[in-house]
Design a protein that fits this description.
- Helices cover about 20% and strands about 25% of the residues.
- The strands form five sheets. Strands 1, 2, 3, 4, 5, 6, 7 and 20 form an eight-stranded mixed β-sheet that branches. The protein has a five-stranded parallel β-sheet with strand order 9-16-10-11-12.
- The two termini are about 35 Å apart.
Length: about 375
């Protein structure tokens, strides 16, 4: 159900099995799996997931390569709502560990906003990241091309930059190192420092040895039309022609609501086990927030893993559903199934009773 201010009270009185912070591909995937495990789920989404800005998803199996990210999110949200999930457009301000539950404090509404608190046994952090963009005086000029042929992801879009004249827009010497893996796709690379950092002698030598150019004059504006960037104009009036661009300026992690938890991190990313559980046993992290590969298909898979582990945790802490005779449905006449029925490969022993579909090394 789509929650609004008018119907929030009933939801604030209940305890959800899981609250998911973030309604991108990972959050929606987790929500769909949890609902299909017959668990009560609330997705709290502030809107504009990273994938929302992707004009074309090229690396997602089964989708036409021109599928926009917002179409995937729209279909995912419709699917989630169709199986009874709750969703709320709001901003999560704080999460408090109450012992057996989390209290999640949110702000609803941009104007005349109100605060509400929701509770859940488990929390999935799926709020993702947002990429920093060149800070030009006219940011509309940046938005005209970002997500089209002005890219932010080498893994996603390296193929589309093959053999093209590409400008790399970096903010630090570390970020500038992306020119080297980009060299797998094209040899025509120009690094723009935008006047934000000094290129040390070692890095300059490595770049020049590859035949790449370095331009340290700040960028005035991007040039082009119909969302296709064709070059840049510099602050000194010079014009550099380009056929594509790659922004490498780092990202902002949307996870301030977890600051009070002493969660293990590697750099800015949360460290998790293979089922996406963090160092807190009831907090899971999926997608771009965790250590791993920042890809939509990976985020969706992370959601499936986290949801499945939460279901296992809850299932093992509660008695199974009983039949009319009072005997657990699956316990009567149970016979072990072949591996293909419970998703196990390279198995050594059958799953635990009722654990159809699991990796028993996680038990």
């Amino acid at each position: 159900m789509k929650l609004k201010k008018q119907n929030l009270q009933e939801s604030t009185d209940k305890i959800y099995d899981t609250i998911i912070v973030g309604g991108g591909a990972g959050g929606l995937s987790a929500g769909i799996y949890l609902q299909r495990y017959l668990l009560n789920t609330l997705i709290i989404d502030k809107g504009k997931a990273r994938s929302f800005w992707m004009q074309e998803l090229h690396n997602y199996l089964g989708l036409p390569p021109d599928t926009p990210g917002r179409s995937v999110l729209r279909q995912g949200k419709e699917h989630y709502l169709s199986i009874g999930g709750d969703i709320l457009d709001a901003f999560v301000e704080e999460v408090i560990d109450e012992g057996e539950t989390f209290a999640v404090r949110v702000k609803v509404g941009r104007n005349n906003s109100e605060n509400y608190t929701f509770r859940a046994k488990y929390l999935i952090a799926a709020s993702g990241i947002i990429d920093y963009l060149p800070a030009l005086e006219n940011m509309r000029n940046v938005y005209d091309y970002a997500g089209y042929n002005l890219h932010v992801c080498l893994i996603c879009d390296g193929y589309g930059m093959a053999d093209k004249k590409v400008g790399v827009f970096a903010s630090t010497a570390g970020n500038a190192e992306v020119v080297f893996p980009l060299g797998w796709f094209t040899s025509e690379i120009t690094l723009f420092t935008q006047g934000l950092f000094e290129v040390n002698d070692e890095l300059r030598q490595k770049i020049q040895q590859q035949g790449y150019e370095i331009i340290e004059t700040p960028v005035e504006q991007f040039l082009g039309e119909d969302h296709q960037m064709t070059g840049v104009e510099l602050t000194d009036g010079g014009v550099i022609e380009l056929e594509a661009g790659l922004i490498s300026m780092g990202s902002k992690y949307h996870a301030e609501y977890l600051d009070t938890f002493d969660l293990e991190k590697k750099g800015g990313n949360l460290v998790t086990d293979k089922m996406a559980r963090t160092s807190h046993p009831r907090i899971f992290a999926i997608g771009d927030l965790k250590v791993g590969l920042n890809q939509v298909v990976i985020a969706a898979a992370d959601g499936a893993l986290a949801a499945t582990q939460i279901w296992r945790d809850i299932r093992r802490s509660q008695p199974p559903k009983a039949s009319n005779t009072g005997v657990a449905d699956y316990a009567y006449g149970f016979a072990p199934l072949a591996p293909q029925f419970w998703g196990e490969q390279n198995y050594q022993s059958p799953p635990e009773l009722g654990d159809l579909g699991g990796f028993n090394q996680t038990k």
